[in-house]
Amino acid sequence: MGVQQSKEPQNIVFYSNEPDINIQFTPNLVSQLQGGQSDSVNEDVDRTVEERVQRQLSLEKERRYAFEQRSVAIVSREADDIARRLGTIPALAIDSATVPTQQSVIECYRRNAKRPVECWQEVEDFKDAVLQAQTNRIIS
User: Fold this and answer.
1) Helix (H, G, I), strand (E, B) or coil at 102
2) Coil, strand, or helix at residue 83?
3) Is 36 exposed, middle or buried (0-12, 13-18, 19+ CB in 10 A)?
4) What is the DSSP letter of 124?
5) Residue 103, pLDDT above cutoff 90
6) Residue pair 31/38 in contact by the 8 Å Cβ criterion
7) Are the C-beta atoms of 127 and 106 separated by less than 8 Å?
Protein backbone atom coordinates (compact mmCIF):
# COMPACT_ATOMS: atom_id res chain seq x y z
CA MET A 1 0.00 0.00 0.00
CA GLY A 2 2.75 2.49 0.87
CA VAL A 3 4.79 1.46 -2.15
CA GLN A 4 2.16 2.62 -4.63
CA GLN A 5 1.87 6.05 -3.03
CA SER A 6 5.57 6.72 -3.24
CA LYS A 7 5.77 5.94 -6.97
CA GLU A 8 5.98 8.86 -9.36
CA PRO A 9 2.90 9.38 -11.53
CA GLN A 10 3.34 8.20 -15.11
CA ASN A 11 2.08 9.94 -18.19
CA ILE A 12 -0.95 8.37 -19.80
CA VAL A 13 -0.64 7.84 -23.52
CA PHE A 14 -3.56 7.06 -25.82
CA TYR A 15 -2.97 4.97 -28.94
CA SER A 16 -5.25 4.94 -31.88
CA ASN A 17 -5.74 2.06 -34.26
CA GLU A 18 -6.24 4.55 -37.04
CA PRO A 19 -2.96 6.38 -37.63
CA ASP A 20 -4.45 8.62 -40.35
CA ILE A 21 -6.52 10.72 -37.88
CA ASN A 22 -5.07 14.19 -37.61
CA ILE A 23 -5.90 16.03 -34.39
CA GLN A 24 -5.33 19.79 -34.27
CA PHE A 25 -5.77 22.19 -31.37
CA THR A 26 -6.26 25.94 -31.53
CA PRO A 27 -3.47 28.11 -30.13
CA ASN A 28 -5.85 29.50 -27.47
CA LEU A 29 -6.64 26.01 -26.17
CA VAL A 30 -2.98 25.04 -26.12
CA SER A 31 -2.14 28.27 -24.29
CA GLN A 32 -4.88 27.68 -21.71
CA LEU A 33 -3.82 24.08 -21.17
CA GLN A 34 -0.26 25.22 -20.61
CA GLY A 35 -1.46 27.66 -17.97
CA GLY A 36 -1.08 30.91 -19.89
CA GLN A 37 -3.62 33.11 -21.57
CA SER A 38 -3.42 34.67 -24.93
CA ASP A 39 -2.72 38.40 -25.25
CA SER A 40 -6.15 39.13 -26.73
CA VAL A 41 -7.88 37.52 -23.74
CA ASN A 42 -5.68 39.52 -21.35
CA GLU A 43 -6.49 42.71 -23.21
CA ASP A 44 -10.21 41.97 -23.06
CA VAL A 45 -10.03 41.29 -19.34
CA ASP A 46 -7.99 44.46 -18.75
CA ARG A 47 -10.43 46.54 -20.77
CA THR A 48 -13.43 45.09 -18.90
CA VAL A 49 -11.80 45.73 -15.52
CA GLU A 50 -10.90 49.29 -16.50
CA GLU A 51 -14.48 49.99 -17.63
CA ARG A 52 -15.91 48.65 -14.38
CA VAL A 53 -13.48 50.68 -12.30
CA GLN A 54 -14.36 53.85 -14.22
CA ARG A 55 -18.08 53.13 -13.81
CA GLN A 56 -17.69 52.61 -10.07
CA LEU A 57 -15.64 55.80 -9.73
CA SER A 58 -18.25 57.84 -11.56
CA LEU A 59 -21.03 56.36 -9.38
CA GLU A 60 -19.06 57.20 -6.23
CA LYS A 61 -18.51 60.77 -7.44
CA GLU A 62 -22.23 61.15 -8.12
CA ARG A 63 -23.09 59.81 -4.66
CA ARG A 64 -20.68 62.21 -2.98
CA TYR A 65 -21.97 65.15 -5.00
CA ALA A 66 -25.57 64.27 -4.12
CA PHE A 67 -24.64 63.89 -0.44
CA GLU A 68 -22.84 67.23 -0.40
CA GLN A 69 -25.77 68.95 -2.10
CA ARG A 70 -28.17 67.38 0.38
CA SER A 71 -25.92 68.43 3.28
CA VAL A 72 -25.76 72.00 1.99
CA ALA A 73 -29.54 72.06 1.67
CA ILE A 74 -30.01 70.72 5.20
CA VAL A 75 -27.58 73.20 6.73
CA SER A 76 -29.16 76.06 4.81
CA ARG A 77 -32.65 75.04 5.97
CA GLU A 78 -31.50 74.77 9.60
CA ALA A 79 -29.82 78.18 9.43
CA ASP A 80 -33.04 79.69 8.04
CA ASP A 81 -35.05 78.07 10.84
CA ILE A 82 -32.70 79.42 13.50
CA ALA A 83 -32.78 82.91 11.98
CA ARG A 84 -36.59 82.80 11.86
CA ARG A 85 -36.78 81.69 15.50
CA LEU A 86 -34.35 84.38 16.62
CA GLY A 87 -36.43 86.97 14.82
CA THR A 88 -39.55 85.96 16.76
CA ILE A 89 -37.97 85.97 20.25
CA PRO A 90 -39.02 89.11 22.06
CA ALA A 91 -36.30 91.19 23.61
CA LEU A 92 -36.36 90.74 27.35
CA ALA A 93 -36.60 93.90 29.36
CA ILE A 94 -34.77 94.10 32.64
CA ASP A 95 -37.18 94.49 35.51
CA SER A 96 -36.50 97.66 37.46
CA ALA A 97 -36.92 95.83 40.78
CA THR A 98 -33.90 93.63 40.10
CA VAL A 99 -31.49 96.47 39.23
CA PRO A 100 -30.74 97.57 42.83
CA THR A 101 -30.13 94.01 44.03
CA GLN A 102 -27.94 93.35 40.99
CA GLN A 103 -25.88 96.44 41.78
CA SER A 104 -25.49 95.39 45.41
CA VAL A 105 -24.13 91.95 44.29
CA ILE A 106 -21.64 93.63 41.94
CA GLU A 107 -20.48 96.07 44.65
CA CYS A 108 -20.11 93.27 47.19
CA TYR A 109 -17.98 91.20 44.77
CA ARG A 110 -15.77 94.22 44.16
CA ARG A 111 -15.34 94.87 47.89
CA ASN A 112 -14.64 91.18 48.64
CA ALA A 113 -12.62 90.17 45.59
CA LYS A 114 -10.60 87.66 47.60
CA ARG A 115 -13.55 86.34 49.60
CA PRO A 116 -16.66 86.21 47.36
CA VAL A 117 -18.31 83.87 49.87
CA GLU A 118 -19.05 86.95 51.98
CA CYS A 119 -21.63 88.04 49.37
CA TRP A 120 -24.02 85.14 49.88
CA GLN A 121 -26.78 87.33 51.33
CA GLU A 122 -26.68 89.77 48.40
CA VAL A 123 -26.80 86.83 45.94
CA GLU A 124 -29.82 85.36 47.73
CA ASP A 125 -31.58 88.73 47.63
CA PHE A 126 -30.85 88.99 43.89
CA LYS A 127 -32.21 85.47 43.27
CA ASP A 128 -35.40 86.34 45.14
CA ALA A 129 -35.83 89.55 43.12
CA VAL A 130 -35.35 87.68 39.81
CA LEU A 131 -37.85 85.01 40.87
CA GLN A 132 -40.36 87.69 41.81
CA ALA A 133 -39.85 89.46 38.44
CA GLN A 134 -40.36 86.16 36.57
CA THR A 135 -43.54 85.48 38.51
CA ASN A 136 -44.85 88.98 37.74
CA ARG A 137 -44.08 88.54 34.05
CA ILE A 138 -45.91 85.21 33.89
CA ILE A 139 -48.96 86.58 35.66
CA SER A 140 -49.23 89.62 33.39
Assistant:
1) helix
2) helix
3) exposed
4) H
5) yes
6) yes
7) no
